[in-house]
Amino acid sequence: MARDKDKIYAAPLEQMVDFRFDERVVSVFPDMIQRSVPGYATLISNIGIMAARYVQANSYCYDLGCSLGAVSLSLRHAIQQPNCKIIAVDNSEAMIAKARDLLAEDEQSVPLELRCADINQVKIENASVVVMNFTLQFIAPELRQALIQKIFDGMLPGGVLILSEKLAFEDPRTNQFHIDSHHDFKRANGYSDLEISQKRSALEKVLIPETLSQHQSRLEQAGFSFVEKWYQCFNFVSMVAVK
Ligand code: GEK
Known about the structure:
Elements (H helix, E strand, L loop, with lengths): L22 H14 L3 H15 L5 E5 L5 H9 L6 E6 L2 H12 L7 E5 L10 E7 L7 H13 L1 E12 L5 H17 L4 H11 L8 H11 L3 E8 L2 E7 L1
Parallel strand pairs: 1-2, 1-4, 2-3, 4-5
Antiparallel strand pairs: 5-7, 6-7
The structure holds ligand GEK.
């Protein structure tokens, strides 16, 4: 995949507008997410590895907030069960259009459907695997419980939800430690202080992180019988929740 460099916040902006997944972001997205999310490649490959254990024959696998389809590709290459279908959903038309081009280059027989839709409106059914890799954090907090409940209700017994999120921490010192460490990670990946601070302002009202215990109690309230954090690097975590 050709990787254009993310320079969106490199020059000073006169007016800060809220972050959007538009064409400009889409064109640099692989570079942006790789340099912004610690362990992104590790997460993508291990999501496939875990999904392979939970996927059931004759079921659906959902990639909610699929962006360019990295999780869907990982699932597609890992699935060994017969008669499965991957349903990848994103509400950014620009993302879905580019994902369609990228997935066309992938030669794999597991059927994959791309849908441009709001995940709050999408029906979840017959699901053995559901992945939200850094998507719930962009959903309005008051809609999150209903969304998790809808996912749980649409899952098969024994199915897995893999949920990756940027976290907030109750203790201010802990919170600051993780924010500073993440910013050091971005600096080490070539982002300037200006880029880091402008991106932070653009995301402020759009990406709303919660604490690990908020996520855990929401998952338990929905009915998941096993909830476990399997990955953490700084303020980025991934959890599994089994029905
Ligand atoms: C990856 N999972 O590469 N409905 C559908 N999509 C949405 C919604 C919504 N309501 N809100 C946001 N999105 C991907 C990375 S990125 C994470 C996920 C990031 C979509 C949005 O358009 C974007 O493509 C994605 O969620 C979040 O593993 O950029 O930090």
